[in-house]
Amino acid sequence: MGRKSGLKFDRIGYWSEMKLSIIKEYAAAHSTIFRAERQHGLYHVYVDAFAGPGMHISKRTGEPVPGSPLNALQVEPRFREYHFIELDRLKVAALKQAVGRRPEVHVHDGDCNNILLKKVFPKVRFEDFRRGLCLFDPYGLHLNWGVIETAGRLKSIEIFLNFPVADINRNVLWRHPEGVDPVDIERMNLFWGDESWRQIAYSTEKDLFGYPEKEDNETVAEAFRQRLQKVASFAHVPKPLPMRNSRGAIVYYLFFASQNAAGERIAKHIFQKYDEKRG
To answer: What is the DSSP track for the chain?
Structure first.
């Protein structure tokens, strides 16, 4: 499919393979819990906001690696419903072919920032006895805070979120902040929800040239964790798992946020296991 359509599957590092394993393991635990509670009428939904074509290529082995949508479809017990969202039409076509015709699977073509708010989240309302597990895995600052906050305030959705610190450092948090492209500033504002990141990302200390000193990645990530709790109203947000490349540099932080203490316990256990395996 990829070659015939002109689509080239993304080549992913081991840290991305690890992330896919983490999501799949948690999804299985999540689905097991909600299948066990079917007598209570709960209907659980899986959502992938940046679904991709359903397949990647491993940088380590050169072999195909199933993406998060195909992993989710392999989870047992099964979710009751699936929503996969992708903006790139070539990837949409590849994903539809990989998924096949299934009445419980919905592949959406378009911007997740619009589709989630208008089409998907209204189907996962707390008062309708629906619950959701949503994966936000953008390559960069392509997710709007309003979507994250809505997920938290619905009280019915758990999320995994790729906090793209590499994109943030490369394009926004420069040593000389006055030189940053206004387009990148706006992307950061949309992702963070406002301009409060400016006070967090830079200290009051000045360097030898009079520019503010940039705070470290951990400080920025911790501020975002607190924002998920205090602004988006997620009750449980454990410390994120830093995902490192082969040189040891942090590429992104993997966040988990939920309204449920049980979900937090499971996510923390999985994070710890993979962190120890990596170390």
So the answer is: -HHHHT--PPEE-HHHHHHHHHHHHHHHHHHHHHHHTGGGT-EEEEEETT-TTSEEEETTT--EEE-HHHHHHH-SSPPSEEEEEES-HHHHHHHHHHH-S-TTEEEEES-HHHHIIIIIGGGS-GGGTEEEEEEE--SSS---HHHHHHHHHHSSEEEEEEE-HHHHHHHT--SSGGGS-HHHHHHHHHHHSSSTHHHHHEEEEE-TTSPEEEPPHHHHHHHHHHHHHHTS--SB-PPPEEEE-TTS-EEEEEEEEBS-HHHHHHHHHHHHHHHHHH-
